[in-house]
Amino acid sequence: MTNDVKDAVVLVTGANRGIGKVILESALAQGAKKVYAAVRKLESAVPLVEKYGARVVPVELDVTDASTIAAAAKTASDVEIFVNNAGVLRSSSPLAEDAIDSLNYEINANVSGLIRVAQAFAPVLKANGGGVLVQLNSVASLVGFVELATYCASKAASYSITQSLRTQLAEQHTQVISVHPGPIATDMGNEAGFSEIAESPELVANAIFDAVRSGTFHVFPDSMAQQIGGAYASFQRDVVEKGGQEG
């Protein structure tokens, strides 16, 4: 099983912007042999290829479209570290008129999207020795925020799926990592109103590859995340991690 990004083949969904772009760049800086920039529109990855050359390989992948995922799994058949960063956010409170529409939209990308990519790429990772599946979940998977209620619900569901994937994919020696950032300085973070407290996306990227090396399941990369993770630590250790592996 791969336990380092150096000389590994990596795929990052949503790689053209925000946290995904920084994860891609961090993988390259840490010695990845090749990084697939998985994006909905191939032209959005052109600047990455221009900057980094042949080590970046654009591949079309929309987490809401199973056909693009299946095609990407054939193209990127050598992937060893799969980072599912792509996700969507709408600001809807439980009583908002658009709450159900927002929830359905977010569930389709944030939860069903995770299931789609896991089903397509778990066999790829297995064929390549096990590998690593990284899921970007957010502290919103653990704490409900009124104006982001539907997003929080979708991330709580994706966290639950990630826990099950950890147990199931252990059978094929695939490491699963659940990443729980707080407010991060990206367009999505700014749109959610967190610009004044947001921290660098480099914290997320560095924490991910540290977890690959250490075998860690939960990752809390920034200061807000670490505060929440500290309060959650005994439950994650004694219930989620211990119970999931024994169950």
TrEMBL record:
Keyword flag Chaperone: no
Protein family (similarity comment): Belongs to the short-chain dehydrogenases/reductases (SDR) family.
Tagged with keyword 4Fe-4S: no
Keywords: Oxidoreductase
Protein name per Swiss-Prot or TrEMBL: 3-oxoacyl-[acyl-carrier-protein] reductase FabG
E.C. number(s) listed in UniProt: 1.1.1.100
Domain Ketoreductase positions: 8-187
SUPFAM superfamilies according to UniProt: NAD(P)-binding Rossmann-fold domains
MF terms (GO), sorted A to Z: 3-oxoacyl-[acyl-carrier-protein] reductase (NADPH) activity
Main enzyme class: oxidoreductase
A Pfam family this chain is assigned to: adh_short
